[in-house]
């Protein structure tokens, strides 16, 4: 794995030199975009809108439009804006991880101690384990500030980027039911159905089956076979049908078990 960020974790006055590595990878199939007529690959190009010519990466800079004029930002400007945050994951609070709403979670990263950071790294990891807490921190990566949670996972510290509160949209505009009367029998059956399907969470049970099935279609087409096109029409549950479908669900679960 290649480190995508290097700096330090600020733990009080203790600085722990670390590197970040992406902890996730895509399971999606890498599909190319092609011209339907001759199957040539479609290329994306960086075009200068005035000259119509392709621009090399080395000639591209970032700019912010202010009063109809672009202010160009160089790499040094991003670091100068907050030098401590570009090189420091500053732990500001310790909280119970269960208090963090899952809607705030973004990408996970593995944290590896850099040279000279092994002992303070181990201390922080074991202290978080013993306290049952996670560290809330801020830092800058790829020219934008990130909020993050640091937590132990086995013998590794994991950093999860978090969304800021202003990045979540309000649900106020959604048309969701408010005063719907639920019958006692309906609720009892719904609770029984939940109990029947309750199990200990095991991520290994879940696979990206869609990509697997899509690959079977790709291989069949490569052999000149035309795969059967399956259509699925999902029936809507009517309110007067609800009790009947709950009963049927419980019966079906009994047969499966």
Q: Given the helix and strand composition, which structural class is it? A: alpha+beta
Q: Give the helices and strands as they follow along the chain.
A: EEEEHHEEHEEEHHH
Relative helix content: 25-40%
* Morphology call: extended
Low-confidence stretches: none
> What is the average per-residue confidence, as pLDDT, rounded to a whole number?
83
Number of distinct beta strands: 9
Beta strand %: 25-35%
Rg, alpha carbons: 26 Å
- How many DSSP H or I helices? 6
Q: How many angstroms separate the termini?
A: 43 Å
Q: How many strands, which pairing sense, and closed or not: the largest β-sheet? A: 7 strands, mixed, barrel
**Strand order in the largest sheet:** 1-2-6-9-8-7-5
Walk me through the structure.
The protein has a 7-stranded mixed β-barrel with strand order 1-2-6-9-8-7-5. Helix content is about 25%, strand content about 25%. The radius of gyration is 26 Å and the shape is extended. The mean pLDDT is about 85. Helix 4 runs parallel beside helix 6. By secondary structure, it is of the alpha+beta class.
Jot down its keywords.
extended, two-stranded antiparallel sheet, 257 residues, 6 helices, alpha+beta, 9 strands
Q: What topology does this entry show?
A:
Blueprint: E1 5-11, E2 14-22, E3 62-66, E4 69-73, H1 75-81, H2 83-87, E5 88-96, E6 105-113, H3 118-131, E7 133-141, E8 144-153, E9 156-162, H4 184-197, H5 209-222, H6 242-256
Parallel strand pairs: 1-5
Antiparallel strand pairs: 1-2, 2-6, 3-4, 5-7, 6-9, 7-8, 8-9
């Amino acid at each position: 794995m290649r480190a995508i960020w290097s700096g330090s974790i600020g733990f009080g006055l203790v600085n722990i030199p670390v590197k970040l590595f992406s902890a996730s990878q895509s399971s999606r199939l890498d599909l190319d975009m092609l011209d339907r007529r001759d199957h040539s690959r479609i290329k994306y190009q960086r075009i200068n809108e005035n000259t119509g010519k392709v621009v090399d990466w080395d000639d591209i800079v970032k700019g912010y439009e202010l009063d109809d004029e672009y202010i160009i930002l160089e790499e040094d400007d991003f670091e100068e804006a907050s030098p401590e945050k570009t090189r420091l994951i500053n732990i500001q609070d310790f909280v119970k991880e269960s208090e963090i709403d899952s809607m705030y979670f973004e990408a996970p990263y593995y944290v590896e101690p850099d040279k000279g950071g092994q002992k303070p790294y181990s201390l922080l990891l074991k202290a978080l384990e013993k306290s049952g807490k996670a560290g809330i921190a801020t830092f800058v990566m790829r020219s934008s500030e990130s909020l993050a949670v640091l937590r132990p996972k086995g013998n590794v510290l994991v950093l999860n980027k978090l969304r800021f509160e202003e990045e979540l949209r309000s649900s106020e505009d959604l048309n969701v039911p408010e005063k719907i009367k639920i019958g006692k029998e309906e609720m009892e059956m719904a609770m029984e159905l939940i109990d029947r399907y309750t199990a200990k969470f095991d991520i290994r049970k879940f696979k990206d089956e869609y990509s697997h099935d899509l690959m079977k279609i790709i291989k069949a087409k490569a052999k000149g076979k035309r795969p059967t096109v399956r259509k699925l029409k999902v029936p809507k549950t009517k309110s007067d049908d609800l009790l009947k479908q709950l009963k049927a669900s419980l019966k079906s679960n009994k047969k499966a078990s």
